[in-house]
Amino acid sequence: STKPSSASASPRQNPNQKAKIPPHLRQLSRAPVPPPTKTPEELVSLGYIVRRTPSVQLPVYRRWQSGGTRQVVLIKKVDGDRIRLLEDLVQGLGIAREDARINPTTQHIELKGDHFDKARGWLLERGF
């Protein structure tokens, strides 16, 4: 009996596994975000501030959970009244109150569902 050598056998691809993007085809950076349109003094009057990252991007992130079937949007770098920001987000984005929460450990705002673009757009409209 002849066994195929391990060098000639091709690795099997799992049809349920997402295809990985080769490093040379990956997007290395996000598109630039417009600068804040309000002064820090105007933003302080809101009661909360969402600070930019060191690369001058908005701190809005998409996280996949439950094997890639559930999406959570995170808003980090919030200073001030997080509860007020959460209520303004719920009202401004038109999402259910039970789909938004403040993580008690990290103090990040979490939104259940695909609200990434809406959340970034809302923060830009508000001048952050």
UniProtKB/TrEMBL annotation:
Domain of life according to the entry: Eukaryota
GO BP: translation
GO terms, molecular function: structural constituent of ribosome
Major localization class: mitochondrion
Keyword Cytoplasm recorded: no
Polar residues bias spans: 1-17
TM spans (from-to): none
Stored Pfam families: Img2
Keywords assigned: Mitochondrion, Ribonucleoprotein, Ribosomal protein
Subcellular location: Mitochondrion
Entry's Gene Ontology cellular component terms: mitochondrial large ribosomal subunit
Listed InterPro entries: Ribosomal_mL49
Region (Disordered): 1-41
Entry similarity comment: Belongs to the mitochondrion-specific ribosomal protein mL49 family.
Protein name, per record: Large ribosomal subunit protein mL49
Species per Swiss-Prot/TrEMBL record: Hypocrea jecorina (strain ATCC 56765 / BCRC 32924 / NRRL 11460 / Rut C-30) (Trichoderma reesei)
